[in-house]
Amino acid sequence: MKFIHTSDWHIGKIVNEFHMTEDQEIALNELFNIIEEEKPNALVIAGDLYDRSVAPVEAIELLNKVLNKIIIDLNTPVIAIAGNHDSGERLEFAKALVRNKGLYIEGIFNGEINKVTLEDEYGPVNFYLIPYVDPPVVREIYGYETIKDHDKAMKAMIERIKEKMNKSERNVVIAHGYVTYMTDKVEEKGGLSTSDSERPLSIGGSELINAGYFEDFNYTALGHLHGPQRVGSEKIRYAGSLLKYSFSEVKQRKGVTIVNMDKYGDIDIELRNIPMRRDFRIIKGELNSLIDPSVYREGNREDYIKVILTDEGEVLEPMAKLRAIYPNIMELSREVTKGNEETKVSKERNYKNKSKMDLFKDFYMDITGRECDDKRQQVMEKIIEEVEKGGE
Fold first, then answer.
1. How many CB atoms lie within 10 A of CB 206?
2. Helix (H) and strand (E) counts for the chain?
3. pLDDT tens for each residue of 303-337
4. In CATH, what class is 2-273?
5. CA–CA distance, 44 with 79 (Å, rounded to integer)
6. 383, 384, 388, 389 alpha-carbon torsion, rounded to 10°
7. Of 178, 183, 184, which is closest to residue 199 (Cα–Cα)?
8. What is the pLDDT of residue 364?
9. Distance between CA 260 and CA 271 in Å, rounded?
């Protein structure tokens, strides 16, 4: 059994006011070439097909075109789940109808974990689809008062799968979240490689899920983290995002994971890169140096650029001068040194590095002159979660 694992397409995403849809379409055309070359039994998408719950028209049109191409023209079934950015209700619209055409989408969690079974020459391979779901929803459906975080919610769902799972067959699970063996390192995201473009899954509570719950599966296809990486072993993997969506991802190599599973359920992994129309790059130096022809000819001038200026004095119209050379500049900042740590740029950086909850607590202190108590923090946590769910 061969399948391609991908995730976090975020179709319709806007990064620093730049619409990424055209770049996404070009990357997805590269995915078509990989599918045509590899001829997999299925394409697995582990959540976040869209960037927000109410996707723009051009994003919906692109996803429709892509799925039609893969399922009809390339004759490849698609198995997908909703991520935390998706609207499960919208994503699985008419799922009973399209299922007969080879599109298997699970968007809404209703208590039962549905599976898709595909056959190869060695027999069945079962794909269990766990769409992203908030812990309170799982608690209400199962009636377990102990479910108060993502870890307990996932444990309950995996236990429900194992009640009926045939361990003599080959089994794959598809999920979306922070999965790690290092669940005690909450502040470090459990040792996972994370990115600035990943939306938090909870405010004020643990997001981490124990990877040990997935050990009985032959492969776990994960979504949410934008950097391709394994969790403990190759059996549990993040495919990473389709493209780079922040400057914290400049060193990441984007692509898809090709999973080959033999008759015993043992797997072999191959990572295939997807060429990008424009890369994300950070360049640093004095303004006159950066606009010098001998410098700006290095690399693609059309890339998405973050510029860090090292000039000590005032600089006249730096953005206009830089954009004449690099048309897709997304960010411009000044290097922070000991002499200017309290400048406006430094304060802005501190502001960007704080969570929404920390910003609210700072605001509350500035307005009232006292610390925000736990009750008010809980109210604000719920408000922030609701806003996060709504997208940008």
1. 16
2. 12, 19
3. 999 999 998 878 889 999 999 999 999 999 988 65
4. alpha beta
5. 5
6. -30
7. 178
8. 82
9. 11
Q: Do the Cβ atoms of 182 and 65 come closer than 8 Å?
A: no
- Output the six-digit token pair for 378: 């809980």
C-alpha pair distances (Å), 392 with each of 12, 14, 85: 11, 9, 10
CA–CA gap between residue 135 and residue 145 (Å, rounded): 11
For residue 20, which of 306, 325, 246 has the smallest C-alpha distance?
Answer: 246
Tokens of 54: 């109410």
203 φ/ψ angles, rounded to the nearest 5 degrees? -115, 120
The pLDDT of residue 186: 56
Whole-angstrom Cα distance, residue 173 to residue 146?
24
Which helix (H) or strand (E) segment holds residue 46: the answer is strand 42-46
What is the SS3 assignment for 71?
helix
Residue 36: pLDDT above 90?
yes
Per cent of the chain over pLDDT 90 is 69
Give the percent of the chain with pLDDT over 70: 90
Tell me which residue of 250, 253, 209 sits closest to 232, measured CA to CA. Answer: 209
Q: How many residues does the chain have?
A: 392
Query: What values do phi and psi take at 93, rounded to 5?
Result: -55, 130
Say how far apart CA 374 and CA 376 lie, in whole Å: 6
Q: Tell me the sheet residues that pair with 129.
A: 174
Cα angle: 121, vertex 122, 124; to 5 degrees: 100
Please state, in angstroms and rounded to a whole number, the distance separating the CA atoms of residues 192 and 238: 10
Domain ranges of the chain: 2-273, 280-351, 356-389
- Of 204, 207, 283, nearest in space to 247 by CA: 283
Q: Residue 224: left if φ>0, alpha if ψ -120 to 50, beta else—which one?
A: left
Pick from 76, 97, 12, 95: nearest CA to 48: 12
pLDDT digits (tens, 9 = 90+) for 338-371: 544 444 444 455 665 678 888 888 888 777 767 8
Residue 303 burial (CB count, 10 A) = 18
How far apart CA 302 and CA 327 sit, in angstroms, is 6
